[in-house]
Amino acid sequence: MRSVTTVIDAERFVEQVGFAAALTDSRRPGPSLYVAVCGRRDAVLPRQVQKDHETSLAWTLKDQMVRRGKVYYGKLARGKATFITPRMVPYFHAVWGVRPPQERQRLSPAARAVLKVLRREWEMASADLRAESGVTDRAAFTRALDELQAAMIVVPSEAVYLPKFTYLWTLAIGRFPDLLRRRVSREVAVREIARCFLQGAGMTLRGELARVTGLSRPEAGRGNRALVAEGSAAMLAPGAYRINEGTAALRGGS
Fold first, then answer.
1. Quick check: is 89 in a domain?
2. 175 and 196 within one domain
3. Count of structural domains within the chain
4. How many CB atoms are closer than 10 A to CB 206?
5. CATH number of the domain to which 170 belongs
6. Residue span of the structural domain in which 227 resides
7. For the ranges 20-34, 109-123, 131-145, which has the lowest average pLDDT?
8. Whole-number pLDDT of residue 3
9. Phi, psi of 159 (to 5 degrees)
10. Per-residue pLDDT tens for 154-195?
11. For residue 82, with 0-12 CB atoms within 10 Å meaning exposed, 13-18 middle and 19 or more buried, which class applies?
12. What CA–CA distance (Å, rounded) separates 188 from 251?
């Protein structure tokens, strides 16, 4: 396993695996930027991450990738900071995305207030956005941003460290307009997310796809069984699946 050392390496890594967590380690299933930086599959985050070179490099690469905007990044299902390669964005959005007609029913008033400001200003730092939106309570503002990220509406566009640390926030549609407007059925989306994970892992055990992606267990199971039905995977035991050789290419559809 070759170590990821540059932002180009990191972007290629995400393209290869399809989606990856930012700073999880070998104790959690699924691809991880931190593990890729370490270059070893048994990598474990140290207790003193502030002084650890590999953790620092993974964090720096994360910031560079956010600024470049070549891959999607945000806190998605269950608040997990996740990178998504562009080809997988329509599938994740079909499952977790909230489209404009659904916003009033699915977003909280605080999230809608933050979104209203961002649609007018396009990009703002956290403190300015909090003040302009009227969501002045820090905890409520953080929850609103997490909600908008999980809905794939808002993404961080840059991490700024001076004079003090803050994120700049922008609309996801501005970075990936065609991909976020593409319509994909939920059934196809779940199947392709399952395919992407299984191609990278080679084999998946009971509950693993659900833990990594945030899909419910029944829906994750349907995605895996769809791969079995088309001949792309084999079921080894209830909940355990293996990718079949010769099915490495992503076969999307709607």
1. no
2. no
3. 3
4. 14
5. 1.10.10.10
6. 186-243
7. 20-34
8. 87
9. -100, 125
10. 999 999 998 889 999 999 999 999 999 999 999 999 999 999
11. buried
12. 10
